[in-house]
Amino acid sequence: MDIATLIGIISGFGLILGSILLGSSLSAFFNLPGLAIVVGGTISATLIMQKLNVVLGAVSVAMNAFLVKTEPAERLIKIMVNVATKAKKGGILALENEKVENSFLARAIRMAVDGIEPTEIAYALQIERNSLVSRHETGQSVFKFMGSTAPAMGMIGTLIGLVQMLLNMSDPSMIGPAMAIALLTTFYGAVLAFLVFNPIAEKLVDRTNSEKVNMDVIITGIEGITKGINPRILEDKLVSFLAPKARKMK
Amino acid sequence: MDIATLIGIISGFGLILGSILLGSSLSAFFNLPGLAIVVGGTISATLIMQKLNVVLGAVSVAMNAFLVKTEPAERLIKIMVNVATKAKKGGILALENEKVENSFLARAIRMAVDGIEPTEIAYALQIERNSLVSRHETGQSVFKFMGSTAPAMGMIGTLIGLVQMLLNMSDPSMIGPAMAIALLTTFYGAVLAFLVFNPIAEKLVDRTNSEKVNMDVIITGIEGITKGINPRILEDKLVSFLAPKARKMK
Amino acid sequence: MDIATLIGIISGFGLILGSILLGSSLSAFFNLPGLAIVVGGTISATLIMQKLNVVLGAVSVAMNAFLVKTEPAERLIKIMVNVATKAKKGGILALENEKVENSFLARAIRMAVDGIEPTEIAYALQIERNSLVSRHETGQSVFKFMGSTAPAMGMIGTLIGLVQMLLNMSDPSMIGPAMAIALLTTFYGAVLAFLVFNPIAEKLVDRTNSEKVNMDVIITGIEGITKGINPRILEDKLVSFLAPKARKMK
Amino acid sequence: MDIATLIGIISGFGLILGSILLGSSLSAFFNLPGLAIVVGGTISATLIMQKLNVVLGAVSVAMNAFLVKTEPAERLIKIMVNVATKAKKGGILALENEKVENSFLARAIRMAVDGIEPTEIAYALQIERNSLVSRHETGQSVFKFMGSTAPAMGMIGTLIGLVQMLLNMSDPSMIGPAMAIALLTTFYGAVLAFLVFNPIAEKLVDRTNSEKVNMDVIITGIEGITKGINPRILEDKLVSFLAPKARKMK
Amino acid sequence: MDIATLIGIISGFGLILGSILLGSSLSAFFNLPGLAIVVGGTISATLIMQKLNVVLGAVSVAMNAFLVKTEPAERLIKIMVNVATKAKKGGILALENEKVENSFLARAIRMAVDGIEPTEIAYALQIERNSLVSRHETGQSVFKFMGSTAPAMGMIGTLIGLVQMLLNMSDPSMIGPAMAIALLTTFYGAVLAFLVFNPIAEKLVDRTNSEKVNMDVIITGIEGITKGINPRILEDKLVSFLAPKARKMK
What we know:
Chain A is mainly alpha-helical. Helices cover about 80% and strands about 0% of the residues of chain A.
């Protein structure tokens, strides 16, 4: 996992816990029915909105985004240049036993070796790229939906608490604590949305962008390779995908 | 119906009912005029905004989305490969008596058998695909509209109750219950929006995406078939639409 | 007018009036200065934002959208097929005295009869289609603007009332009624936005979509006609614009 | 200035002033520090966000939008047809001394006279059109930013006032007036956003659309003129940009 | 740094400080735990959402946007015309030792000198342009995220304070000060969002637009240069990217 993510999670929840402990006990902020209505209600609405396997898929995509690093484009460009060099020397068929880790690149090479026409290869790879993007967007939409539903569930919980408090105002000394409990669901909804669901949704957007760049590098690269491009010229072309800084550090 | 949807509906409403019953009777949260203004007001605004048949169409599209499963793209690809194999062996005309369940595919095959030019077939299928997408978007817009109107109707109901309460503050003991009732419409609006209308709208977005993929598989497939593509190469091309996982499980 | 629209307007305002009458007199919710600031303020802001003739144009477009039905695409397709049949039999010039109600189609036919090249016809019709869409979008933007300005004017009115109430709190018995009056402008703003301006804006979006489909049917149809397409094949092509259901009912 | 704009400004501010005077003196709504924080804070945030010359440019673009009328497309079409007629009679070079007010058209004619190729002319004019659109969008973004920042500055002012009031609650009779003053900044922010910044931003959107249509008329027209199109056919083509009503009135 | 930015920062914070000092001491608005939860919570959420190097990259891009001026397009056009003049006289190879500050232009010239085909050069430059835009968009999204998270963190802090206050209402004289402190986090969140994060995000949008124009000038220019375009005609073409005013001042 990216060390920053871990720091973010620990410090985010740590600050909230610390802030609570400064003024009261933690138990004052724990309310099981409130947690149930916010967490459970958000999950329920999500299950209504999406097929179970898509929701589980979104969770696994999110875990992936946090636990597995994307290949840096810099490294991928080096690999492409190596592949191009081999192809330049031994022809496309020299790539037959090329072992590459990246499954998208492996597929591109296999198609090139099979003698499929360059435009057909580009077409198939483009479809795969767009499918990946739209699958990722589905994952993002699940977490964005949760990020907007959680505060609403918090508000629903608070409204229930407020109505019940207003109906039982005979004992004024109970108004404060009752309202405190009513507000807890709003608090849960905000914490869930802004420290959990929204950052995950944004993380997936970012991850999609990284993978799009990598796939574009591969699509551009394999097109050059099938045309027998000079590896040095290919490198020159592919570094256009990098920030000027990343190019210089190469 | 997707089992998850059922679980979502039951658990979502169950949590809210449970949360209410923990602190009061259910009847305290039932207010007929309040329900009438939120449900009725939302439906009224929707009828102003859209033709009756479109609203009913949106409801039937939504029911469809929950009750009828879309064909998995994996299965559709198998069917396309079968069709391609037959066409490869016996020529396009061998498809004349081909029975396929999917009406979009059936139309595509019929046009191919009729000898209509590939570009014309693709054009007609594209129009049909785009028409379907825009009809679905109309359905989504109906439910999105309801999802944003319901909380507003809840607020309107609460404002009516608050104004009436403020005009009759002679008996302070009545302020609490009057305000409780006023808040109920806000509660109704939020529950309707976040547990009913918004999840339905999102479900339709998702359904549209699935059908778009299926139609793209068919359009790409029939194009290959009319050109006499090798079935194995067609399969290779069509699996680009699937997630890598779904491909391996094949 | 669509009967549903009428039902929507009557039931929407009826529910609000009924809800008011259940708890107080109607006169308690009538406040002339409040109405003036919300309605007048919204209109004022709209006049600042747009030229007078555009605002009046938007109002007339909206009236049109409610009072005049768009031609159903089904009927238009039948007309196109008839026109194609005549052109097939007697040549394009046989359309010289063709009387059609739809002015866009009439223009398309006139250009075809005048011998203007198909690509030029398509170009001119596309421009007209896009101009119509962008004029409709201007109309929508006027009502969307009013839909977001009305609640703001309501809030401004409430703020004025609140400030005045807070400055004169010497007589506590006046606080309730003063606040009730202050809240009325928020109430007016919400009713105007959610039962009037927003539904109209959405209605215009929907109307634009219907007209776009009709124009696409005509553009596709006239292109086929100038090329002497077989009327049955043209019909096959044009029904792609319809929902499968609407096709079967033909 | 469009007379409607003037009416809008006068009636908008008039209604607010009238509404204030009905219940209190004007001076009760005047608070210099409050005005300073809302107006000054909004301007400060805008200066942080944009270069000074862009902000001043946006102000001058906005003044232009209110004070200078755009040429009606109807008139521009007449001019284009006149130019086409001259070019048809005397050749492109006959346009050498053509005086036209519209600088975009003047440039188009000059390029045509200079013998630059039609595709190059179209390319240069397209660039100019897109540059204008993106400069206008920058202007809009400045006012949209101010429209969303002003209410936020109003809220910041109110929060400052509320905190100070809460810290000094020893004299209950001061709570009302202190809170009234705190609310004034929220009031200022809402008036500024909804009667000043947002209408200006929308006005600029509308102005951009008008200029886009005019430029499209010129680009389409000059293309025809360089090809020696028949002026009557050109007119037929260009009226596609007008609403059917505006065409008939011609 | 743009002098306006400096004025904006000083006057923005100055107005808020002044507004505070008018009614209380500054220390009344300083609350360390509150600041920690808003600033720390926003940074934590950002670290969860993005890789550390991207966050640091966004900060450095933002610093750049404030401290380094973009080259004015006017000056860039002059440089392009000079380069074109040299190339016209001495051929493309005369550019071999051309020293230009702008690294994008330098790369374009180097590729032209290396004899890479014009379409390939345009392709590589387009990729670089799009990569820059998408990297900038990542930077913007980081600050937009912070701009929407900061007020949420403020609300979370306020909710914690409110709940604690409501649980300890035995001493009524403490309610005011406790609520004042609770509101401080909302205040911090609003100031951070509207005077810091949002203006930075908008600044980056603006910066991206400037750089896009510059890159388009270079791409269009180098294309002409490789084709041996007349420098005067090139200038005529490139000034299309400028506002009419900026052209005249040249």
